């Protein structure tokens, strides 16, 4: 089939043509975390493991976060939050993910609740 028989390219001359990325090597620069930010993420991962160990057996499925961008609550199951933090550590950013489907808010607690609960339990030991 000749090129003349094909319909015109709707992206011809468009610098934002999505097909252009197929011809070029990917040159996406990764964001990098500062040493202090990396330390915070590592500490958050360690805290998350403690919180999950203490609260999962009590029926808590994960953590709820009030989103400053959209003003809504986001419900993160333990494994999703852990993988997001690990991705932040590895890649310097978290990719968007699908929100929890119809979460029961009574199964999620805040990070602050987790911290207070862990402090209380571990201080009694």
TrEMBL record:
Domain of life where this protein originates: Bacteria
Protein name: DUF5319 domain-containing protein
Pfam families named in the record: DUF5319
Spans annotated as Disordered: 1-36
InterPro entries: DUF5319 (IPR035165)
Organism: Pseudonocardia adelaidensis
């Amino acid at each position: 089939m000749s090129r003349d028989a094909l319909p015109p390219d709707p992206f011809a001359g468009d610098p934002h043509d999505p097909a252009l990325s197929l011809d070029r090597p990917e040159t996406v620069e990764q964001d990098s975390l500062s040493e202090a930010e990396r330390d915070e993420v590592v500490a958050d991962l360690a805290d998350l493991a403690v919180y999950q160990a203490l609260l999962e057996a009590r029926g808590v499925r994960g953590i709820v976060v009030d989103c400053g961008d959209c003003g809504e609550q986001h419900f993160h199951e333990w494994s999703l939050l852990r993988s997001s933090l690990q991705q932040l550590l590895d890649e310097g950013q978290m990719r968007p993910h699908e929100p929890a489907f119809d979460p029961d808010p009574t199964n999620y607690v805040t990070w602050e609740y987790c911290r207070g609960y862990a402090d209380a339990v571990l201080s009694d030991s």
